[in-house]
Amino acid sequence: MMQRDAWWDNVPHEELEEEFWDIVNSGQEQMAVEYGSDLDTVEVGTAFGDSDTDRRSLWNLQRLPTAPGSLLRHLDDVSGVTSPWLYAGMLFSAFCWHNEDHYAYSINYLHLGESKQWYGVSGHDAARFEGVLKAMMPGMFEKQPDLLFQLVTMVDPQTLQAKGVPVCRLTQHAGEFVITFPQAYHAGFNYGFNLAEAVNFATPDWLAFGVRGAERYRHFRRTPVFSHDQIMCRLVKERRDELDPQTAAWLQECIVRMRDEERDYRWYWYERGITRGRRWFTEQDHHDHDEDQQQQTENQRANSNSRKRKRPTESNDSDGGDEAKHKDVKRVQEKDQVAWNLPGHSPSLRKFGQCMICRHALYVGGVSCEACDSTPPPDDAYVLDESDKPMARALLDQGHRNKMTC
Predict the structure, then answer these.
(1) pLDDT tens-digit profile of 315-356?
(2) What is the pLDDT of residues 373-404, one digit of tens each?
(3) Rounded to an integer, what distance in angstroms lies between the CA atom of residue 49 and that of residue 83?
(4) pLDDT (tens digit, 9 = 90+) per residue, 159-174?
(5) 149 Cβ neighbours under 8 A, 6+ residues apart
(6) Of 8, 99, 98, 111, which is closest to residue 54 (Cα–Cα)?
C-alpha cells in the first residue's frame, strides 16, 4: 500500500491542472521536476511481473509488438517500439506535444500511483495544429524547422481551442490503458508519483500513415527510428499468404509507391553515368539467396529449352552498345535489400545505410563511392566501382566520406 501524505493529495485535480498551466503560461515562475522517462524494460525490467501467468497475459504490453496481426513483429529489436518503456513520474512532470515515431499507434498502461492528465489532437487535425504552433512561434520554427520532433513545445489546450484546433482531454487512473492513434498529437502531465509503461504497435490500417511518417523524416532530414520499407518487404515475403483482402490492398498501394520511387531514383542515377551495381547480402539473406539460386538452377535445368536472358556479371566492362546498357539498367533496377554498417548511425538502423541528404534508411537501394569508403564492405548494398564514379567523384570533391545517397 502506497503512503499518501503529500500536500497535494487532497487538492482537487482541477486546481492542480489550473496551477500547472499557470506556471507554463506565465513563464516567470521556475519549477524543477524529475521524470524517469524512456526507461527500456529490456534493461530495467517490466512492471507487469515475471511469473508465467504474467508473461502469458494478453494484457502484458511485452507481448503486443510481436502479437499476431502486429506489423512491428517484422522489425528487428527497436527500443521503445518493439519493447516497452517505463515512466516514473512526479507532480507536474510532463510530456510535451508530439506524435509517435513513424505515426504509429501507442498504448500506455498506468501501473500505480497518481493519475496522469492527457490532451490529444486527432490526426485529422494534425496539420491545423502544426500551422497554429508555427503562427504562434514563427521565430523558433524558422531556426528549428523540426521543433516538434524535440518534445519541448507545451501550449495550453485552451489556447489551441481558441485558435480553432479541437482538443480532447482525459484523466488516466491506475489500472487504465490509454491508446493514441496514428499521427495524433498528445501531451500531458502527472498529478503525483506514478509508474506507467508504454509501447508502440501497428495494425494494417497504419501502413499508409507509416509512409507519410517516413516522408516526414525525409522532409526534415531526420534519422528514422526504423525502416518502413523493411516492414513492407518482410510482410510480403513472410505473410503474403495470410493477408486479408483489405490489408493486401493497403499493402499493394504502399509497395507500388515504393517500387515507383525506387525505379525513378535508379533511372536518375543511370542517366548520370551510374549504370552498374553490386549485390551483397546479410547472413540470413545468404541462406535465402542460396536456396533461391538452387531452386532457380533446378528450374532452368527443367526448362533448358526455354528462352533465357543472360544477366550481366560484376566484371562486365564490355562496350556492348545499347544492348549492354539495357542489361545494366535492368541490373540497376533489380530489388535488393541494403545493409550498410556505418558508425554513428541509430542502433536500430545500424544494418542499413542512410542517405547523406535526407537520412532515409536505404533498405531497398542506395549509391555509394567504394573508393572513398573506409568501412568494411556492407552485407548487402549497391556501390559504385572505379569505372562508374562521376557522382562519387563529386561527393569526394565536397569532402563527403562514408556517405550514401538515395
Answers:
(1) 333 343 444 333 333 333 333 333 333 333 344 454 556 777
(2) 444 444 333 444 434 334 433 433 343 334 45
(3) 15
(4) 999 999 999 999 999 9
(5) 98, 220, 222
(6) 111
pTM: 0.75
Quick one: how many helices (H) and strands (E) in the chain? 12, 13
Nearest 10 degrees: Cα torsion 127, 129, 133, 136 = 110
Which stretches of 280-379 are DSSP H helices?
Answer: 283-302, 321-333
Beta strands in 18-141 (DSSP E): 36-40, 85-89, 94-98, 105-113, 116-121
Cross-strand pairs, 196: 87, 110
| Chain position carrying cell 549497391 | 382
- Helix 245-271 vs helix 321-333: crossing angle, to nearest 10: 140
Three cell numbers, residue 399:
569532402
What mean pLDDT is reported for the chain? 76
Which amino acid appears at position 265 of this protein?
Answer: Y
Strand residue runs (E) in 191-242: 194-201
105 has a pLDDT exceeding 60: yes
Cell of 366: 542506395
Please name the residue ranges forming H helices in 95-181.
Answer: 126-136, 138-143, 157-162
Inter-CA distances, 173 with 35, 112, 200, Å: 18, 8, 20
Q: What residues contact residue 395 under an 8 Å CB cut-off, 6+ apart?
A: 356, 369, 372, 403, 405
**Rounded to 5 degrees, what are φ and ψ at 90?**
-135, 180
* The three grid cell numbers given for residue 176, joined into one nine-digit string: 487504465
